[in-house]
Specification:
globular; mainly alpha; 213 residues; 72% helix
Amino acid sequence: MKVNLVDALKFPLKDKKLLKKLFLGGILSVIPFFSGGYLLRIMKAAIAKQKPVLPEWDDWKGIFNDGIWFVIIILAYTIAYLFVPVLIGLLIKYKVIVCFVNTILLTALPLVFLPAIFIGLCLYTGTSQISSAFQVKKIIEIFKKGLNEYIVISIILVLTVVIVNSVFRPLFWLWPFGGFYLSVVMTRLYSEIFIKTVEEVEESPMAQVKPKK
């Protein structure tokens, strides 16, 4: 599967119901169970190598149920992310060194944790087993295979968030909608990288990650 940033940015614009879906997504972003479940549907379509389209906002119960597991996985990774600087603070006595190390880590860690989160979510989506999202060895293996693409996309994501936050701060009321659009694009991108790299991992046949019907 070819990963194309431009195509990922453009595919939502082709949807005739874009404004309606974007509006609902922006509003429901305050309830991560719905927005998370919606993103998992985009992920599932990418893993199945389906044409990139915006899913319909239907089957509210199904979206909400998927979103519960989405939130659980995100929370688990967030706790792990925040635990790193706390652990460093406990192990290192000198505050200056702790601040310096934590500043570097908090800047660099998103480039690792963002791909790890999406790989975990993709593994869960493909197997419907929550334990799949935390298979560290497999996540590392997949991450290493697509290292360059994962890092580049993560850098683009972080820079985009920083730039948008700085330039469009007065238009704060548009953030939920722009943020949802960005989430849709990045979910599709990370999922395409995942499906591309997982096929290259030895002893990882696609039968193990394709979504269950």
